[in-house]
Design brief:
Chain lengths: 213, 202
């Protein structure tokens, strides 16, 4: 719509008059209308018309006492319907779950899941990320690679490791690097604890999980 | 006399404020507090009834419709995003429901009452302007005039006369502010025709 304020000041003021009458104009708009009315008294008749309309709309209407009980009764009915629809929805869902159609849907979903699980690598390189063992496992056998700061430290570290993990098999890779195999399943919390202990041994440069199974 | 009612809207159109007592009540309604819902109903009953009755002129229908508006408020409370005042949002619901009923009533009357259109012609055109125009007569004429304008324009007139500002009306009826002004302008022009005699004599 065209901005009547600049193109036609009469129309602009005419537009504002109803709200001038109901006293909802901003101060600046009100002042604008007041100023216009001084120079254009013919608009006073328009205001009178609007006030007449307003007065008639203010006519006494017999407004009944609000019926709270009736409203709350309607509310109860609505909520009952809602509850009913919810239980109906659950029933429909259950009926569908046990229907042959659901079985036909479940078969491809199960197959897809099986494929995804088979394709997930069974060995995961963890690179020292203690918190992620192989996905979904609660226990795992694992291999830990230890590197000592020097070859001199190696024998001391091996002795300490034997004390720490008597069941472990230790295989030397290089003079300062060896691998611990834990064949029994170890809880993740124990693994983390073990790894921290190994890392804190004097002479150990690094200790990290290589594989879990 | 101007219509100044504390329950009615203010000059500005603020967004929903947490200080607004209606908002505090409404937040409880959102959490499905039935007591708060009752209080909100009591707070809005008169306002809704007045607006709807002015539009529909049928007590029984309006009485039921006010309940229906409040039930929609209960069900849709979660959808309110605070982009307007609570009163504007509730009046918007009332406006849409009133308009629907208004159109339905009009269709019904046109279908079942063959004299409906004729009945709406004010007596002044039959009796002539020399008649004394009483307050009741003016009221009747305005009512006739309001009957002839479209529901969209009429609701703008009614909301304006109830003290809503034009930005608030624009929110309630979901249209641009300029459309509100234009509708009011045309409605006033039409009403003037019905009141021309009473005003031309002054």
């Amino acid at each position: 719509m065209i901005d009547t304020k600049h193109t036609n000041p009469d129309s602009h003021i005419m537009e504002l008059l109803p709200w001038y009458v109901n006293d909802s104009l901003s101060e600046s708009e009100k002042a604008e209308v007041d100023a216009y009315l001084v120079s254009h008294p013919e608009y006073l008749q328009e205001i009178e018309l609007l006030r007449t309309i307003q007065n008639t709309t203010e006519e006494n209407i017999d407004i009944p006492v609000p019926n709270r009980d009736r409203l709350m009764q309607k509310l109860d009915e609505i909520e009952q319907i809602d509850e009913h629809s919810f239980s109906q929805y659950i029933n429909q869902l259950l009926a569908w779950l046990f229907s042959p159609r659901a079985a036909w849907t479940a078969i491809p979903v199960a197959l897809a899941l099986a494929v995804v699980m088979l394709w997930t690598p069974s060995q995961t390189s963890l690179n020292g990320d203690f918190h992620t063992l192989s996905s979904g496992d609660t226990t795992a056998t694992l291999t830990i690679s230890i590197t000592t700061s020097s070859t001199d430290d190696a024998s001391t570290v091996i002795d300490q490791m034997h004390k720490l993990v008597p069941a472990a098999k230790i295989k030397t890779k290089y003079d300062n690097q060896f691998v611990i195999f834990l064949s029994d399943k170890v809880e993740p919390e124990e693994t983390i604890k073990l790894l921290k202990n190994l890392q804190s041994l004097p002479g150990v440069k690094s200790a990290e999980i290589v594989t879990t199974r | 006399m101007l219509l100044v009612n504390q329950n009615l809207p203010t000059k500005r159109m603020p967004l929903a404020s947490t200080d607004d007592p209606d908002m505090i009540l409404f937040q409880r309604v959102k959490r499905k507090d039935r007591q708060a819902f009752e209080q909100l109903f009591l707070a809005y009953h008169e306002r809704l009834y007045r607006f709807m009755f002015r539009m529909l002129q049928q007590h029984e229908q309006v009485d039921e419709l006010v309940d229906d508006v409040m039930l929609v408020v209960w069900q849709k409370a979660g959808d309110f995003r605070g982009q307007s005042k609570i009163s504007t949002w509730i009046m918007g619901i009332a406006h849409r429901m009133t308009l629907k009923t208004y159109q339905k009533n009009k269709k019904y009357r046109l279908k079942h009452d063959s004299n409906y259109e004729l009945d709406r012609i004010p007596d002044q055109f039959e009796a002539g302007p020399e008649n004394t125009i009483s307050r009741d007569k003016v009221y009747e004429q305005i009512q006739c005039g309001l009957e002839t304008i479209s529901a969209d324009k009429r609701s703008v007139v009614e909301l304006t006369m109830q003290g809503y500002s034009y930005p608030e009306i624009a929110k309630i009826i979901d249209c641009p502010v300029n459309t509100v002004k234009t509708r009011m302008f045309h409605a006033r022009k039409a009403l003037k025709v019905f009141l021309q005699d009473s005003f031309s004599d002054r």
